[in-house]
Structure to design on (226 residues):
């Protein structure tokens, strides 16, 4: 079975500062990894995903994440955040043999002016 | 394409009442899911389906039922609503031909009083 841990429940940052949202996973088999964003009062949107290939994945809105197999991590980064990046961010993992997504508990990114 | 459509958007139930949350997708996706989102808990998988006529339990299936008579529709049924079922419910669909990407509905906010 897979599990996902997002260590930070909240991350406050000032506008234009860099940010890293941490995600660690555990699995006995190969996995796919995802980051989703949820803006207030909206459903989830896919930010980026890692299926195979290059371990550095670029997503929408200037976000990127790096898959580190040895550390079982998939941290999300952005070099300069905007107020509009304020949202809840979810890391998720799925077994390559199924389509069941397991989500982390989410990290609330709050960007201050 | 409308994507994934959930109805209703909001609902208040009394304890013991029953209701069905509707979910429909027009992308011909085989895989469909129901998640619930509780504050600080992230998303939990309730039920999922890999195709018409096939359903399976997720992490938190108790108190819910589903059916998948067609590829398009995946309704979630609450038979005897309980306060513990107060949550935001998300329906989603995916397909390997879309790179495993999950498409989410906008959610149903359910309160059981």
């Amino acid at each position: 079975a897979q599990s996902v841990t997002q260590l930070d429940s909240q991350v406050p940052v000032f506008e234009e500062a860099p940010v890293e949202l941490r995600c660690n996973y555990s699995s006995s088999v190969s996995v796919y990894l995802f980051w989703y964003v949820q803006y207030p009062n909206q459903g989830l949107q896919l930010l980026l995903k890692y299926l195979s290939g290059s371990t550095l994945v670029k997503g929408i809105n200037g976000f990127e994440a790096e898959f580190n197999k040895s550390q079982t991590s998939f941290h999300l980064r952005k070099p300069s955040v905007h107020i509009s990046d304020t949202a809840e961010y979810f890391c998720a993992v799925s077994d390559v043999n199924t389509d069941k997504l397991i989500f982390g508990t989410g990290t609330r990114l709050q960007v201050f002016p | 394409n409308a994507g994934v459509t959930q109805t209703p958007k909001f609902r208040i139930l009394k304890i013991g009442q029953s209701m069905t949350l509707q979910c429909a997708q027009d992308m011909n996706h085989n895989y469909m899911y129901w998640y619930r989102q509780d504050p600080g808990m992230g998303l939990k998988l309730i039920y999922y389906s890999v195709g018409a006529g096939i359903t399976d339990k997720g992490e938190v299936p108790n108190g819910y039922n589903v059916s998948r008579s067609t590829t398009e529709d995946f309704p979630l049924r609450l038979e005897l609503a309980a306060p513990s079922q107060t949550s935001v419910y998300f329906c989603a669909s995916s397909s390997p031909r879309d790179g495993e990407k999950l498409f989410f509905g906008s959610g149903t906010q359910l309160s059981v009083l």
